[in-house]
Amino acid sequence: MVILSIAFAIAAAFNWNLPPGFRPPVAGANIQTNEKFELGRRLFYDRRLSYSGKTACADCHQQRFAFTDGLPSHIAGLRNTPTLTNIGYSRVVLEKQALTPMFNEHPIELGVKHHEKEILARLRSDYGPLTIDKITQAVAAFERALISGRSPYDRLVFDDDQHALSPGAWRGMRQFFTSGCSSCHAGLHFAGKDIPTLRNVALTAPYMHDGSIATLAEVIDHYASGGVQSPVKSPRLKGFTITDAERNDVITFLNSLTDQEFLSNPALAKPEK
Description:
The chain is mainly α. The protein has helices at about 5-15, 35-45, 55-60, 95, 100-105, 115-125, 130-145, 150-160, 165-180, 180-185, 215-225, 245-255, 260-265.
């Protein structure tokens, strides 16, 4: 595989088997390096980054849940925690986004505001001279490496493995692409411009921004009914007809977007030391 950037060099170093259709996430001025990735990984799991010393980024973004937390709303009590799967390909500026949980006051998440010097002093014992900029750049470098692209669906598309999907998943894939689902969840990442990816979606329940829907079956029924009336409802949500068998097939297809290598990759897990 041709190494297209430092991001892929990192991937190669950890033997991540990425499909050829992927391109490196855009990093802007934050030059991606192995050292920056490893620092970001350690900080991501380090609870000392919070003022209380009890909360880490990884508490809300757990690898086993595709970097969500399995709760209706995250620990600060607001919206459902979004997945970080392939977050580097989104329009989010990760360096800027990292500041939000660090400095939020309503609600308080990591509680860095007003305690910046104390937290930096606490971390410097292990990490050397840190600044807030260095922390956000390192965490962003780690998040850009959260690349999922080895699901059964990917093995079908990129490896031409005709046995990667079950018959039900094949039927569900056809249903997904003909019923209108793909008009919002489109492209390589099954995500629109402002819509979360469906990669690893079977692991990210409960669903919707408020975590109000517990299962994929209920999500499909919600959209089949046309959704709820709202001033911000997309005109694309017009509803559709689906049988029980077709719903089950779509769910089987959505399960084929689960990337077990991503969920168990030790290079993305909490460092042993």
